[in-house]
Amino acid sequence: QPSEGESRNVLTESARIARGKITDLANLSAANHDAAIFPGGFGAAKNLSTFAVDGKDCKVNKEVERVLKEFHQAGKPIGLCCIAPVLAAKVLRGVEVTVGHEQEEGGKWPYAGTAEAIKALGAKHCVKEVVEAHVDQKNKVVTTPAFMCETALHYIHDGIGAMASWACWLMPVIPALWEAKARG
Fold first, then answer.
1. What is the value of pTM for the model shown?
2. Torsion of CA 35, 41, 43, 48, to 10 degrees
3. Which of 97, 133, 136, 165 could be a cystine partner for 144, CB 3.0 to 4.6 Å?
4. Which CATH architecture has domain 34-183?
């Protein structure tokens, strides 16, 4: 936590967590990357958008919105996990995403209400288990619940792995590699 009178800086915090050099999102271009992955966590609801405060009436950070639209228009995959699928739901109309289940189920899915907000934003919510990823083939958007579920870390790991794998499979370079391999 910052000392009294100080505020937190997203870039400084990102560098601390990543333990390395980070780059401002304003410098990200779809032309230079094969996919975009948004890891989620409360920061996605608080710093990348106003979802934590405003729910379905949230605003998305202008650079996050630009990146989502740019990758989408370029036909490049976008992966989002945990609470981050709300970003795609807000920016990419009609997108299919998951944040897991739509009922709390005795506390196993404590943020299940997020599914209703996603629907209110005009997106389709698809119920998935924590170990699964939902693949919106049309929009090349891959999502997984991650920490939206109260469960063991290895299950969350499996779901994030599924999201990352599907995002890789949707990259334009992968079909080209398989075609080249098939030609010998």
1. 0.88
2. 40
3. 133
4. 3-Layer(aba) Sandwich (3.40)
